[in-house]
Amino acid sequence: xxxxKANQTQIILKQGDITEENCDGIVNAANSSLMGxxxxxxxIHRAGGPEILKECKKIRERQGKLPTxxxxxxxxxxxxxxxxxxxxxxxxxxxxDQEKELLKKAYKNSLIIAKxxxxxxxxxxxxxxxxxxxxIEEAAEIALKTIKDFCKEDQCYKEIxxxxxxxxxxEVYLNKAKDIFNK
Length: 183
Ligand code: AR6
Description:
The chain is of the alpha/beta class and 183 residues long.
């Protein structure tokens, strides 16, 4: 685990399973259907229980599929959190299909909706770098820069954690964070 600072917000990088975190908001790397899936999405629904899917279904009925880059919020069910923020990262298509802008939007819109719901500590997984194939080096840079830019403007967060599932992913994020936050 390593801690950085962006304005008044603690930025924590940690290797682990996001479903074991104790915080206000847990971000889910969902898909547009909001009906669950594999990877971190599957893990969050399994650990959080059926209440999360129930609310996702209501959102689907109300507003249809969730476009890439947008975010919605539900209960966290049995997780040690107040809410789950579901966002949809882009599927990597080679880099010329607005993937970078859309990944940035996924982080930014998650931060905005969590702020609107008064969440002070929030955990992110590495959005889009699993099944969606986004190259991790670029994804890490976008994730951390978007978080830093947000914190420059807004000090609403006490703590923002990036939870990296593998040691390799953790190392990539750590190296980027040293560049981005230590200047
Ligand atoms: N805690 C933290 N990170 C995790 C966990 C966990 N428990 N499990 C996996 N990861 P992915 P995506 C990491 O594929 O690329 C789903 O089926 C994983 O190692 O979960 O945005 C959705 O329903 C990787 O680094 O999400 C969508 O269909 C990162 O989380 C699709 O996958 C993201 O991998 C979304 O793909």
